[in-house]
Amino acid sequence: MTRxxxxxxxxxAALGVLTIAAGLVLFALNDTIVFFRSPSEIAQEHTAPGTxxxxxxxxxxxxVVKSDNVHVRFAITDGGADVEVAYVGILPDLFxxxxxxxxxxxxxxxMSFTADSILAKHDEKYMPREVVDALKKQGVWQEGxxxxxxxxxxxxxxx
Amino acid sequence: MNPxxxxxxxxxxxxxxxxxxxxPIWGARANDAALMRVGPSLALAxxxxxxxxxxxxxxxxxxxxxxxxxxxxxxHSLKPLLYRITGTWGNHEGSMLLWALVLAIFGAxxxxxxxxxxxxxxxxxxxxxxxxxxxxxxxxxxxxNPFARVIPAPAEGNDLNPVLQDIGLAIHPPLLYLxxxxxxxxxxxxxxxxxxxRIDAAWARxxxxxxxGAWAFLTLGIAMGSYWAYYELGWGGWWFWDPVENASLMPxxxxxxxxxxxxxxxxRDALKVWTVLLAILAFSLSLLGTFLVRSGVLTSVHxxxxxxxxxxxxxxxxxxxxxxxxxxxxxxxxxxxxxGIFAPISREGALVLNNLLLTAAAAAVFVGTLYPLALxxxxxxxxxxxxxxxxxxxxxxxxxxxxxxxFGPLLAWKRGDLAGAAQRLMLAFLLxxxxxxxxxxAQGGGPALAPIGIGLAAFVFLGAVVDIAERxxxxxxxxxxxxxxxKGLPRAAMGAALAHAGxxxxxxxxxxxxxxxxxxxxxxxxxxSFPVGRYELTLARVEPRTGPNYRELVGVFDIRQGGASVxxxxxxxxxxxxxxxxxxxxxxxxxxxxxxxxxxxxxxxxGGLAIRAYWKPLVTLIWIGAxxxxxxxxxxxSDRRLRVGAPKPAxxxxxxxxxxxxx
Lengths: 159, 663
Description:
Number of helices of chain B: 21
Oligomer: heterodimer
Largest sheet of chain B: 5 strands, antiparallel
Distance between the termini of chain A: 69 Å
Shape of chain A: elongated
Membrane topology (chain B): Multi-pass membrane protein
CATH class of the largest domain in chain A: Mainly Beta
Shape of chain B: globular
CATH superfamily of the largest domain in chain A: Nucleic acid-binding proteins
Keywords (chain B): Cell inner membrane, Cell membrane, Cytochrome c-type biogenesis, Membrane, Transmembrane, Transmembrane helix
Strand content of chain B: 5-15%
Number of domains of chain A: 2
Transmembrane segments (chain B): 6-26, 38-62, 96-113, 125-142, 175-195, 207-229, 249-266, 273-292, 312-331, 352-374, 394-413, 425-442, 448-469, 489-512, 618-638
GO biological process, one term (chain B): cytochrome complex assembly
Domain Cytochrome c-type biogenesis protein CcmF C-terminal (chain B): 315-640
Number of helices of chain A: 3
């Protein structure tokens, strides 16, 4: 094979891999991404049932119902609207009423949702950013309240 | 020790780093030997000051000095000593200081062991290392001072996030940083070569051990992080495609490509420009990873205490280093002498294929990790790119890599014989088919991909064995001769085969765990029994206990197999009193390479406990495989030619170093 031919093989191999990779990425992105919605957005947009979504907000006070087996029902609220969530499984350690939560799963009705995974915070100071934004939109966010990510303030810092 | 000493040492380190950036590079340009020689001394001084600063912070943690804000926020006097020490880097400021310390240690290592480096190259390398030091120490001092004081000092601290109170914190971040920062050395070499406009096979020989070392540490760091998440988070998963995991996977993929392309450059004097680019990319992705995690733009486990005001500084560092090095690359790469060209079917050709696919995989991870950020910034839509995306893209791109892996080492340099290689791999291939058949039979009607994966894993593992057998002539030559040849094999070849075998082992574990794991979720009361895989668990008793800084509720489970007791396992739910934060401590029993995994949930209304139990077949092979890979890297690192060092280029006719035209 000539020098030119070899170089051609190299370049076409590189382009081939690049094209396949780009195609894969685009195909996978098209097919697998999950959108985030707040309860108010779901109330307004009438998303079709069966759509895979992430819903975030606060666990509504007094809404958590645990049954004897591991079925759980609760409501996610952002102050503007509530979504009823059904979940089978173990809740995260930091799942509490009045705290931030993200549920991933499918819409089963206009305002009802079946979750297959529940994400809560890993740290009591930390709130998922999407949830903060959703709450701010509804005007229920208060800096420093509800485990908001405020800096601990044990006095004055001296630099 | 007084915290101000630590702060002051950091300021001194900054001053030294500025000198280390300016003087040696200036010396190299002006061809001033004396200026070039100050590089090593400055690198050692830098290391000394950063180490002092780090030691002061550790001592503040050990003594529970609550006049230091960082200690107040992340420590507690009742915390066990080990976690008081590791808590030093279990927070933003401390972990950045650890990063700087690792950087300083690597710089000092180059200074101490780089005796056989040409003076100009060494000066430039240390200069580039110095500039990274400037950026990080300035970042610490200006935005993340770990020594900030609190007046009045509180009597007690807020305690460390309980999830981090684990031996994993002692191991995972240091290993990961040794990997991340190790690539700073190869980056410095690449930039130095670009500054100088000169690069040769000897350059690759100096770079390869650093790349190998960094790669081995990064492999261990990622594996350790994976195992830690597996047992600590209580979800039983070992890889979540969490943005932070992706942040460490990207430099790993680029680094894996780098250690392979460096071989081509060293042996065949080809792929030079590409190797330089990979060295730049590997460290750029390390930097990006560090800062994606630290800046908190990505939501993840690691985003404790995030502060968006640091974002601008971080962005500036990224732009300067990544943008700067890539600009330098664009400007100077064409001046580097191009290497030889080779037949497509050859060892080089196989390594090019490996590089193409690995970098494409790194790019796919990059897109999946950053696309949500880009989309939110441009359209405001909030999306998640989850496991399905990564499983599909990475699976499809890594499958050919893994399949081609046994062929590469069996092809000759320059012009290989694919049919011959295939013939020698026939036995491994047939045994792989047998393994696939056995797997298909054993699983009955399970997922169709599982037997294929098992067959592939067996093929890769046996392919590595065939490689070694072929090289030493086992089966062809008399046993004594073959054994002598086996002992005489270069450690680099042994290391490569071992690392490839590790990939096979790891793949075996991944396929077995994902295809055949059993999950049981239920509510149980004391005395209840339930099956998990081939075992039966009984909740024997539930008892409260008290630890040094937590209370816990422990569930003790008896394990029975076919009616006979085979032991017990304990799982608990802890409440850390200082933060009033619960954690789940999974109970894990290992049987052979498989594990039984039990974690507790909440107490249920009827008086029972929510329980999640898994049977995870061959799951430990995932991490054992990674350990074998890292071991292979280490073995390769101890190869004679890397230990003895490169031949001095002085033996060649040294070109008169001509001053580079000012840009």
